[in-house]
Amino acid sequence: MKREPLVLGIETSCDETGIGIVRGTTLLANTIASSMDEHARYGGVVPEVAARAHLEALRPTLEAALAEAGVALNELDAIAVTSGPGLAGALMVGVGAAKALALALGIPLYAVNHLVGHVGADLLHAPDEPEHELELPTVALLVSGGHTSLLLVRDLANDVELLGETIDDAAGEAFDKVARLLGLPYPGGPEIDRAAATGDPNAIRFPRGLTAPKDLARHRDDFSFSGLKTAVARWVEAARDRGDDVSVPDVAASFRESVADVLTAKAIAACQRLEVPRLLLGGGVVANARVRAMAQERADAAGITLRIPPLSLCTDNGAMIAALGARLIAEGHEPSTLTFGADSTLPVTTIQA
Amino acid sequence: MLLAIDTSAGTSVAVVDRDGGILVQLDETDTRRHAEVIGTLIERAMTEAGVVPAQLSGVVAGMGPGPFTGLRVGIAAARAYAFGIGKPVVSLISHDALALDLREPLLVVTDARRREVAWSTYAASDELGLPVRVAGPFLAAPELLQKEVDGYDGYRRWDAATIPAGPFGMLGERLFAAGRRAGPSEPLYLRPPDVTPSAGLKRVS
């Protein structure tokens, strides 16, 4: 029997302290401590609050992950850690801990790219599930509170290209802001989804950012949600000024429709243009029912195979970081040197720092 | 033997021994490169001291006060290293590193950014040479320090740009030998996160 590397992954790029343990592509533990509740009163992730929470959560999360995997520290073959992109102060907690842990254990350390990690999540399978190959090339659409990125992945360990990304707000941020506008709690994604369930998605035609011909010329694969957010705010203000009742379900459904439409249209268009018949979704916004459903409909219609990892592997987690680390090892990459730092804007082309 | 890590100012890493003293102390004074240098300094300190992780009986962590982002790097590293070797973390107040074997009262002042300093006052050390903190650590505007420190004129003032991990580690050794308690287990941020709950929505139109 081949012995694949046992890798522990550390992820602290935003508000989730994620520790994952994998053996090759087999998922053994995926433990997450979230500081989301602490951010709720501020309506968004507060970097300093997130960084403080990481420091306190690190050890208990490590212990829980090792227990879940049934693994002792001295069995680990390598550590992988997110070095970027993300919140600098939050990343640094993971980077400092990962370097020290690797040195204490005398094992190699792999500093990896958070966004490529999201793609790596699709490598993983549960111990009782069969292995499945990550079919390449694939287009990947990664959508969360911090990112909205469209990637072309030719080779997970060696060749990832950024096709486009948001030029202002991330999609998840827009959900949070529109939820606030509608008096719904943070985080906005699940709340909008719930409210939208009984709304009419065609009640209001909100703008689709960067889809006009002149925008497509420059920003074919880029996204913009700032204008949409403002358009929703204007619409709600105007309705309230007129003394109209604002239908929260209709606004939520129409807003969600605009986001889902732009995200999936651009992702499918990229697949078609590049003649890549595969699309992978990742990031917390994948939890959104309409985004998933529309992606499936449009992928089916275009003959594109859609892959969506389980939600627990789509939101930020350490298992995807460990999975990418394991893949780098499998492909013979050297460990990272100890001099890397946290890079809040690490480009996706830098798969390993 | 102890590994000592403090990132409350620059990055300082030391390996110390109760009997042999400070075996190695390495410093990076740049206050914005903690994450980059922490691993190399730990690795070099251990190599130059000729010590392997299993020989350590714990890791000393400087809990601040200090600028948050850098401070956390050292604490995270100290905690993770201790976890990795299955030994305890000895958490100590960073200012205490400068107050070993004092013969006269001392005022320690360090940078806290945002036009403030962090300060602590110490009396002459006790019979074991261990720090006797009178007040602090607290924050103050530099120009108000003289007013805020009770009995300011009775202290020798030390404006410290670095916290040396060597004496800091020795403090850990001596506290342990004396059966004294370590310092706070939480970082000494001394300031709440810089954020206020949102005041409500602003109109866009």
In N-to-C order, the SSE pattern of chain B is EEEHEHEEEEHEH
Spatial strand sequence of the major β-sheet of chain A: 3-2-1-4-5
Q: How big is the Rg of chain A? A: 20 Å
CATH architecture of chain B: 2-Layer Sandwich
* CATH class categorisation of chain B: Alpha Beta
What is the count of structural domains of chain B? 1
Task: State the helicity of chain A in percent bands.
Answer: 40-55%
Give the rounded overall mean pLDDT of chain B: 95
Describe the structure.
The complex is a heterodimer of chains A (353) and B (205). In chain A, 44% of the residues lie in helices and 18% in strands. Chain A is built from 12 helices and 10 strands. Chain A has a 5-stranded mixed β-sheet with strand order 3-2-1-4-5, sandwiched between helices. In chain A, helix 5 crosses helix 6 (188-196), helix 5 runs parallel beside helix 8 (226-241) and helix 9 runs parallel beside helix 10. The radius of gyration of chain A is 20 Å and the shape is globular. The model of chain B has no long low-confidence stretch (mean pLDDT 95). With 205 residues, chain B is α/β, with parallel strands linked by helices. Chain B has 4 helices and 9 strands. Chain B has a single domain (2-177), classed as 2-Layer Sandwich (Nucleotidyltransferase, domain 5). Chain B is globular. Classes of the chains: A alpha/beta (353), B alpha/beta (205). At the A-B interface, helix 2, helix 3 and helix 8 of A face helix 1 and helix 2 of B.
Short description:
Chain A is built from twelve helices and ten strands.
Topology:
The complex is a heterodimer of chains A (353) and B (205).
Chain A: E1 6-11, E2 16-23, E3 26-34, H1 36-40, H2 47-69, E4 78-84, H3 88-105, E5 109-113, H4 114-120, E6 138-143, E7 148-155, E8 159-165, H5 171-181, H6 188-196, H7 213-219, H8 226-241, H9 248-274, E9 278-282, H10 289-302, E10 305-307, H11 311-314, H12 318-330
Parallel strand pairs in A: 1-4, 4-5, 6-9, 9-10
Antiparallel strand pairs in A: 1-2, 2-3, 6-7, 7-8
Chain B: E1 2-6, E2 11-17, E3 21-28, H1 34-49, E4 58-62, H2 68-85, E5 89-92, E6 106-111, E7 117-123, E8 132-140, H3 145-148, E9 156-159, H4 165-177
Parallel strand pairs in B: 1-4, 4-5, 6-9
Antiparallel strand pairs in B: 1-2, 2-3, 6-7, 7-8
Helix pairs in contact in B: 1-2
